[in-house]
Amino acid sequence: MHEYDLVIIGGGLVGGSLACALSGCGLRIAVVEAVPASAEHQPSYDERVIALSWGSRRILEAIGVWPDIAPEAEPIRQVHVSDRGHCGFTRLGPEDAGVEALGYVAPARVMGAAIRSALALSPDVELLCPARLSEHRVAADRVELEVQCADERLRLSTPLLVAADGGDSAVRRQLDLETRDDRYAQDAVITTVSPDRPRTGVAFERFTDTGPLALLPMTGGRYSVVWTCRSEETSALLALSDDAFLERLQARFGYRVGRFLRVGPRRAYPLKLVLTRNPVQPRVVLIGNAAHTLHPVAGQGFNLGLRDVAALAEVVAQSARAGADLGGPAALSDYRAWRGSDQPSTARLTDLLARVFVNPWTPLRLARNAAMLGLDLTPPARHRVAQRFMGVGGRLPRLACGVPLEKADARD
């Protein structure tokens, strides 16, 4: 039996970030990850990117991985929000929140490499990869797990199990937890385009009758496109030639960044809201997509998962310093109190935006356009909205303030 203070199922961006955050806190940590790290390769034109809020940047700084991400992260210095075919629009800028950027767009490849490099240098973190959870059993004071690691079956024991194993979480399935599971009858078509007049640092969110169309600025004058369409339209969009797709996108988006010249391969993902009703169980905590999978409108999914990381890391570190039970009722109650509001409220907000802006009812359309115009003309309201989406409002954990956990005593 291998004894650990903490076992994390899932060593991706969320689970890996938690392990990085707790490295150096005197804990023995195991990370169980099914997918081996990709071989080093040159980045492709259309590589997958993630929108990071300002608050997420501070968390990544505090856990020590931001310096490796920053060179390939494109700042978002303005967000332009509009309603296609109508007069409503608003603009958010860093001056609304007193920061240098509202957020960043970073390649997932770069983020993953930075986290893996940090874990490789952490003597108190053991990465079991490729490995899969076979089963687990929750006892009064421990969680016992069986993990298939290559040809070997390992038995692990820990006072706290953290599930960061994605939207199809094996831990959630084994616990048979109740979830809210809403299908939007929409898909997100993801691709990369290059326009002839890119606007450096400007992100666009355009609401259309089929869902939001987002353009996120990337390095080299590229934009990552997230085009929400009705599920019955997806096959036709994917089947278009590159020229026909660019023409359709141009008609949908307009010419705010000029004419689209080049497009990468297209991929489509079904959209849904999955919200675990009780992500905190005896000696088990679900974080990231294992706890909540959101509609991509406003780019909140990964940022919400990083806020899970910041809060859980602080609770665990405080319990460890006090010599308390890391998976005991007191620690889990503290984490539940911290995250019990942000998770459902962010899920409700993204769900509301996804539904309200596709509703063609005339009074609702007029109201939302008036609201956007009013927001654009009211700096205090813009400030509150910017803070909400930047992840810097309310009571913040140390990591969300940019302070590493090992420096916590300096602030006590």
Automatic annotation (TrEMBL):
What InterPro entries does the database record attribute to this sequence? FAD-bd, FAD/NAD-bd_sf, Ubi_Hdrlase_CS, UbiH, UbiH/COQ6, UbiH/COQ6_monooxygenase
**A Pfam family recorded for this sequence:** FAD_binding_3
The record's keywords, sorted A to Z, are:
FAD, Flavoprotein, Monooxygenase, Oxidoreductase
**Highest taxon in the source lineage:** Bacteria
Its Gene Ontology molecular function terms? Answer: 2-octaprenyl-6-methoxyphenol hydroxylase activity; FAD binding
Q: Would you identify the family this protein belongs to, as annotated?
A: Belongs to the UbiH/COQ6 family.
Protein name according to UniProt = 2-polyprenyl-6-methoxyphenol 4-hydroxylase
